[in-house]
# Entry
Amino acid sequence: MDYPRSVPSAGLVDGKFVDENPVTGAPGSLIPASWGNSITQEVLSVIQAAGITPTEGLNNQLLAALRSSGLFVTAPQFDNGNTVATTSFVTRSGLQFSGFASYAASATLTASNVGGVSSFSSGTPITATLPVTTDIAHAATINIVNAGSGALTVSAAPGADTIKASNGVTGSIVLGLGETAEFLKLGGQWRLVGGTVSLKYTSLFSGMNGLPGYQKYSSGNIDQWGYGTTDASGDVFVTFPISFPTAFSSIVANHVGGDGAAVIMVQGSATKQGCRLKVRDMGGLSAAGWGVYYFAKGY
# Structure
């Protein structure tokens, strides 16, 4: 549909209709019957396609047609054409990701990866660099999977961008075999908000590597470990890396040396913060500087 440009008598000015000007005597445009009929039929076709009977005097039928469920045709499930997506089509589509990309080596992701899954598979350590946040929509997401045996380090693009875990820790995120991560774009950062790797940043699964160290579990149980040395009386005063929230349950300890020795926990010394161990050799003697490894449990 267009203006009746091919009809000279329509009196268009610059291709459009104009009003009559009584002051200058310039005539107004005329609407040819063919054009009026055509524009009317354009509107009626939309109304009728929606299953609505055109009614003279009603001026809201075109709007009603555009809002109706009968105007748009639902495309086949998983159709990837450019037709309008009805709510029925969206429901049947399974809300799938925007795409799936596979990488066998280090790669810098782009805006085309947003909304999709990027899978990395390598037998050696590689790096996935997230897209620059500039021009990426607020709250856009990227999902990353490590399908390889090599560690996958997810880093921010060089510059002002950062990666932040849900507990506020900033820096690169390392994924092991089978681990996943979901990142959300917020301002100049990619926020880790999901995936299996995010569990290590939650209070349920937090921990500390090294000696001493600890590991929390979703059940509420906590393991703690460390190393201590005896004083002249053969005592080791153990302070746990963190306080058990509810109670200390048990402890096992091993003497580090060249011969046998007994390690006991002194009765009544146990608290949620630590305990006292006593070490004696096979002759019942004690000395300063003997090493002891301990492993404690609590909740």
In short: Residues 207-298 form a domain with the Immunoglobulin-like fold (CATH 2.60.40.3940).
